[in-house]
Amino acid sequence: MRKPDAVRLYRSGEEPTVEKLMAQDDVIAALKEKLARLKRDSSTSSKPPSSDGPAKPALPPKPPSGRKPGGQPGHKGHSRAMLPPERVDQIVDYYPTNCERCRRSFRSQPRQEVADPQCLQQTEVPPVRAHVTEHRAHALGCTCGHVTCATMPAEVRASQFGPRLAALIAHLTVTLRVPRRGVRDFLQQLLGLAISTGSVQALIEEASAALADPVLELQEQLPKEPVINADETGWMKKRWLWIFVTTRFVFFNVIASRGAKALTAVLGADYGGIFCVDRWQAYTCYHKGRMQICWAHLKRDLLGLVLLGVLTKEPEPMLLGAALDLLRTELFGAWHQFRDGTISRDRLQEIAAPIVAQLLSTLERGRSAEHKAVRILANGLWQRRDHLFTFLEVEGVEPTNNIAERGLRPAVQWRKICFGNRSDAGAIATSRLLTTVHTCRITQKDPLAFLEQCIRASRAGQPAPSLLVPTASG
């Protein structure tokens, strides 16, 4: 049944009753709450920043500090370090020809250097051209009349393009997010290499195949890791990109699911470690063990509750959101001291104990609040109260899931260029290339060199190197 409309009642001259006025108040309150939710953005909810749109109000300008732009007095300067002599390819010496005072030529007198020369190293890119090797398999005739033809090595017969070039194409695609046509044009302009977009795609697929074993090794190791940070984002074409971050490697997986079955496909039926995630239901449905709920997401939810109270002029959501956010700020102040090495973990737990008690007490009061949004948030956090403070007790657990969100950011930028994957093979290639590049950064490997090693090993029929083994300096 349609609820009473104040305008219709006024125009018809119908006498408004108490019941009708109360119903009208309910409609107004519901509309106010709906408006408040529509005004939420990425800073006051879990919406992605890309959904904010131009209507999001700009941040208020910072008050002038009175300081001049640039480095401030006492700031330690940074300059480009001189390369060692063995890295210098050419030295050009300059000498004065005449004395500035008497104009006498230095050529007519013995050279006397009275100080070290002033040095300036200029780095330049030399003219580059693709190196082409022509392989020839000769046929020789024997005195017996038989003709024998030489056999080229398998790594030579594998492709018309060398492994380093194939690695460069894959690296440009996944790391620098250059489209296929952009890679084609870049190689043409820089190396004078004529290559089709089809060949570019074929070499990317070859790189994906060469990375199969190293990435599979990470997937098998992932369920054994004690702590995993996880997150997910849309990948177009009804696919989602999942990221799993550990202290030793990063694993990406593009799969046509945002539910718990995606987690089962990667981690198995039962993961026994600590899961650091947001409150997306797929995580809580899948993982029954210990977790750490992301406080960065909770901060946005609390600010959203305050915004709701401000827009609807209702004190309850505003007061609860502000109280919880204040306690969160105090808790993070102690955490930052611990992370910076100022205090020990025992001291962190000592400082956090009364804050945690106040947080739980505030949540418990919120569970019986009159406002529906307050009750929903308070009950949701109360049910997961055992997963809010794991970072206070367990080494290697962070209070936020920022490490996973930062790992997704370059992938999201790539998605905006490539528009996802249309095939399963493309989704697998995306997963393997992202996994390799991000893991190489953790293990201090050169991703371009690692890609080349894998492609070279694949063409020669040899085992690929491991992503888990760090470099000598790692």
Structural overview:
The chain is α/β, with parallel strands linked by helices. Among the domains are: 220-291 and 401-442, 2-Layer Sandwich (Nucleotidyltransferase, domain 5); 295-392, no CATH class. It is built from 16 helices and seven strands. The strands form two sheets. The protein has a five-stranded mixed beta sheet with strand order 5-4-3-6-7. A two-stranded antiparallel ribbon has the order 1-2. Strand 6, helix 9 (281-286) and strand 7 (291-293) form a beta-alpha-beta unit. The longest helix is centred in the last third of the chain and has 25 residues, at 315-339. The chain is extended. The N and C termini lie far apart (69 Å). The model has no long low-confidence stretch (mean pLDDT 86).
**Amount of beta strand:** 5-15%
Radius of gyration over all CA atoms, rounded: 32 Å
**Mass-distribution shape:** extended
Strand order of the largest sheet: 5-4-3-6-7
Topology:
Blueprint: H1 6-12, H2 18-38, E1 139-141, E2 147-149, H3 154-157, H4 163-174, H5 180-191, H6 197-210, H7 212-221, E3 227-234, E4 240-245, E5 250-255, H8 260-267, E6 274-277, H9 281-286, E7 291-293, H10 295-312, H11 315-339, H12 345-366, H13 372-383, H14 402-418, H15 424-442, H16 447-460
Parallel strand pairs: 3-6, 6-7
Antiparallel strand pairs: 1-2, 3-4, 4-5
Helix pairs in contact: 2-10, 4-6, 4-16, 6-15, 6-16, 10-11, 11-12, 12-13, 15-16
